[in-house]
Amino acid sequence: MAEALLRRMLADRDLSERVRVDSAGIATWARDGMLPSLDARLVLREVGVELPPGGGSRDLRRHRALLADADLVLVMSQRQREEVSELAEGEGKSIFTLREFAGEAGDIADPASQGEETFRACRDEIHRCLERSIDRLVGQLQPTT
C-alpha cells in the first residue's frame, strides 16, 4: 500500500519521472509474485488508487540489488529496519521506519488477515506519514536519469 500511495503522491507533484519507488518484502513469508490482498486493493480503490493486475511482491532477500541501489529505505517497523540493516547491501544505507521519517515514533503494524477496517486504518496511517514526510523524502532522494 505504501508503494502505491507514494507513487500517486509523486505523480500528483509531477515527480514520477524523477524518483524511482520500489517495494519488497523482508518477512519470512515474503515471496516473489505474491499478489496484494483483496483488502489492500479495496481500500486503495476507495482513495482512487488502482493496483495494476498481475505484478506482485518481491522478496528482498532474493532481490538485494533493490537495496544496493536504494538511496533511502523506508520500512513499517523497527524489526523490519533491523532485518534490512543486517543484509550486507543495507550497510551504510539510510533506513528509517515510516513514522520515524515523519518525525514520530512507533511502528505501523502489518494488517494482514485482520480485515478491511484494519487495512483502511493502516492505509490512512501510511498516507498521513507520507504527507508529513514527502518534502523531506523528495529532498533526500537522487533524481533518476
Name some characteristics of this structure.
single chain, 145 residues, mainly alpha, Rossmann fold, two-stranded parallel sheet, 6 helices, 2 strands
Secondary-structure blueprint:
Blueprint: H1 2-12, H2 38-45, H3 64-68, E1 73-75, H4 78-86, E2 95-97, H5 98-101, H6 116-140
Parallel strand pairs: 1-2
Helix pairs in contact: 1-6, 2-6
Detailed description of the structure:
- The protein has helices spanning 2-12, 38-45, 64-68, 78-86, 98-101, 116-140; strands spanning 73-75, 95-97.
- It is mainly α and 145 residues long.
- The chain has one domain: Response regulator (Rossmann fold, 3-Layer(aba) Sandwich), CATH 3.40.50.2300.
- It has a two-stranded parallel sheet.
- Helix 1 packs across helix 6 and helix 2 crosses helix 6 (116-140).
- The longest helix has 25 residues, at 116-140.
- The chain is globular and about 40 Å long.
- The model has no long low-confidence stretch (mean pLDDT 87).
